[in-house]
Amino acid sequence: MKRQDYLNWDAYFMGIALLSALRSKDPNTQVGACIVSPQKKILSMGYNGMPTGCSDDEMPWERDGDPLETKYLYVCHAEFNAILNSGAHSLNDATLYVTLFPCNECTKAIIQCGIKKIVYMEDKYADSTAVRAAKKMLDMTGIRYEQYIPQNKHVILAL
At 49, phi and psi to the nearest 5? Predict the structure, then answer.
Protein backbone atom coordinates (compact mmCIF):
# COMPACT_ATOMS: atom_id res chain seq x y z
CA MET A 1 0.00 0.00 0.00
CA LYS A 2 1.33 3.45 -0.87
CA ARG A 3 2.06 6.15 1.66
CA GLN A 4 -0.98 8.33 2.45
CA ASP A 5 0.68 11.39 4.02
CA TYR A 6 2.54 12.68 0.93
CA LEU A 7 2.25 16.31 -0.19
CA ASN A 8 -0.49 17.12 -2.67
CA TRP A 9 0.45 19.19 -5.74
CA ASP A 10 -0.69 22.52 -4.27
CA ALA A 11 1.33 21.97 -1.08
CA TYR A 12 4.37 20.90 -3.10
CA PHE A 13 4.37 23.89 -5.45
CA MET A 14 3.50 26.40 -2.72
CA GLY A 15 6.39 24.91 -0.75
CA ILE A 16 8.68 25.67 -3.70
CA ALA A 17 7.35 29.25 -3.74
CA LEU A 18 7.94 29.58 0.02
CA LEU A 19 11.46 28.21 -0.33
CA SER A 20 12.13 30.68 -3.17
CA ALA A 21 10.95 33.54 -0.94
CA LEU A 22 13.83 32.75 1.42
CA ARG A 23 16.22 34.05 -1.28
CA SER A 24 14.76 37.56 -0.98
CA LYS A 25 16.94 40.13 0.75
CA ASP A 26 14.00 42.43 1.49
CA PRO A 27 14.00 42.95 5.28
CA ASN A 28 10.20 43.36 5.42
CA THR A 29 8.48 41.26 2.76
CA GLN A 30 9.82 38.08 1.20
CA VAL A 31 7.76 36.78 -1.71
CA GLY A 32 8.31 33.67 -3.79
CA ALA A 33 6.69 32.36 -6.97
CA CYS A 34 6.64 29.08 -8.89
CA ILE A 35 5.12 28.65 -12.37
CA VAL A 36 3.88 25.17 -13.25
CA SER A 37 2.73 23.63 -16.54
CA PRO A 38 -0.61 21.84 -16.91
CA GLN A 39 1.46 18.62 -16.77
CA LYS A 40 2.69 19.56 -13.25
CA LYS A 41 6.25 20.44 -14.38
CA ILE A 42 8.03 23.43 -12.86
CA LEU A 43 8.66 25.98 -15.61
CA SER A 44 10.18 28.78 -13.55
CA MET A 45 10.66 30.30 -10.12
CA GLY A 46 11.33 33.76 -8.76
CA TYR A 47 11.53 35.93 -5.67
CA ASN A 48 11.38 39.65 -5.01
CA GLY A 49 14.69 41.44 -5.32
CA MET A 50 16.74 44.07 -7.07
CA PRO A 51 17.40 43.85 -10.81
CA THR A 52 20.48 41.95 -11.93
CA GLY A 53 23.53 44.18 -11.66
CA CYS A 54 22.01 46.47 -9.01
CA SER A 55 23.82 45.77 -5.76
CA ASP A 56 21.55 44.64 -2.91
CA ASP A 57 23.95 46.45 -0.59
CA GLU A 58 23.73 49.80 -2.40
CA MET A 59 20.03 49.91 -3.27
CA PRO A 60 17.48 51.20 -0.74
CA TRP A 61 15.26 48.83 1.22
CA GLU A 62 13.29 51.53 3.06
CA ARG A 63 9.50 51.61 2.90
CA ASP A 64 8.94 55.29 3.69
CA GLY A 65 10.43 58.61 2.66
CA ASP A 66 11.59 60.08 -0.62
CA PRO A 67 10.40 57.63 -3.32
CA LEU A 68 13.90 57.53 -4.84
CA GLU A 69 15.20 56.35 -1.47
CA THR A 70 12.64 53.54 -1.01
CA LYS A 71 12.59 50.04 -2.50
CA TYR A 72 9.36 50.50 -4.47
CA LEU A 73 10.80 52.05 -7.62
CA TYR A 74 13.49 49.38 -7.90
CA VAL A 75 12.43 45.95 -6.65
CA CYS A 76 11.31 43.32 -9.16
CA HIS A 77 8.42 41.30 -7.79
CA ALA A 78 8.58 37.50 -7.51
CA GLU A 79 5.93 36.91 -10.18
CA PHE A 80 7.68 39.24 -12.62
CA ASN A 81 11.02 37.53 -11.98
CA ALA A 82 9.47 34.08 -12.46
CA ILE A 83 8.00 35.18 -15.80
CA LEU A 84 11.33 36.66 -16.91
CA ASN A 85 13.23 33.58 -15.68
CA SER A 86 11.07 31.24 -17.77
CA GLY A 87 13.36 31.52 -20.80
CA ALA A 88 11.96 29.79 -23.85
CA HIS A 89 9.17 27.97 -21.98
CA SER A 90 5.64 28.79 -23.03
CA LEU A 91 3.58 29.83 -20.03
CA ASN A 92 0.24 29.29 -21.80
CA ASP A 93 -2.27 27.63 -19.49
CA ALA A 94 0.27 27.53 -16.63
CA THR A 95 -0.51 27.95 -12.94
CA LEU A 96 1.31 30.53 -10.83
CA TYR A 97 1.90 29.68 -7.17
CA VAL A 98 2.79 32.82 -5.24
CA THR A 99 3.08 33.63 -1.55
CA LEU A 100 1.43 37.09 -1.88
CA PHE A 101 -1.44 38.10 -4.18
CA PRO A 102 -0.06 39.84 -7.30
CA CYS A 103 -0.16 43.61 -7.78
CA ASN A 104 -1.67 45.22 -10.87
CA GLU A 105 1.69 45.48 -12.66
CA CYS A 106 2.51 41.79 -12.21
CA THR A 107 -1.06 40.92 -13.18
CA LYS A 108 -0.58 42.61 -16.55
CA ALA A 109 2.46 40.39 -17.18
CA ILE A 110 0.55 37.32 -15.96
CA ILE A 111 -2.25 38.02 -18.42
CA GLN A 112 0.10 38.76 -21.30
CA CYS A 113 2.11 35.53 -20.96
CA GLY A 114 -0.93 33.24 -20.86
CA ILE A 115 -1.00 32.05 -17.23
CA LYS A 116 -4.54 30.81 -16.53
CA LYS A 117 -4.61 30.23 -12.77
CA ILE A 118 -3.11 31.83 -9.66
CA VAL A 119 -2.81 30.05 -6.32
CA TYR A 120 -1.80 32.54 -3.62
CA MET A 121 -1.07 32.21 0.06
CA GLU A 122 -1.69 35.71 1.49
CA ASP A 123 -3.78 38.65 0.35
CA LYS A 124 -2.73 41.19 2.98
CA TYR A 125 -3.07 44.12 0.56
CA ALA A 126 -6.58 43.14 -0.64
CA ASP A 127 -7.94 46.64 0.00
CA SER A 128 -5.17 48.41 -1.91
CA THR A 129 -5.86 50.02 -5.27
CA ALA A 130 -3.19 47.84 -6.91
CA VAL A 131 -4.78 44.55 -5.80
CA ARG A 132 -8.32 45.72 -6.54
CA ALA A 133 -7.19 46.63 -10.06
CA ALA A 134 -5.43 43.27 -10.38
CA LYS A 135 -8.61 41.37 -9.44
CA LYS A 136 -10.64 43.45 -11.88
CA MET A 137 -8.29 42.51 -14.74
CA LEU A 138 -8.19 38.85 -13.70
CA ASP A 139 -11.98 38.69 -13.57
CA MET A 140 -12.25 40.34 -16.99
CA THR A 141 -9.85 37.86 -18.57
CA GLY A 142 -11.22 34.74 -16.86
CA ILE A 143 -8.00 33.94 -15.03
CA ARG A 144 -8.90 31.98 -11.93
CA TYR A 145 -7.41 32.74 -8.55
CA GLU A 146 -7.76 30.90 -5.30
CA GLN A 147 -6.23 31.08 -1.87
CA TYR A 148 -4.04 28.21 -0.78
CA ILE A 149 -5.14 26.76 2.54
CA PRO A 150 -2.29 24.88 4.28
CA GLN A 151 -2.93 21.27 5.32
CA ASN A 152 -1.39 21.82 8.77
CA LYS A 153 1.61 19.82 7.70
CA HIS A 154 5.00 21.02 8.88
CA VAL A 155 8.08 20.45 6.78
CA ILE A 156 11.45 21.19 8.34
CA LEU A 157 14.42 21.75 6.08
CA ALA A 158 17.86 21.41 7.55
CA LEU A 159 19.73 24.18 5.78
Answer: -175, 175
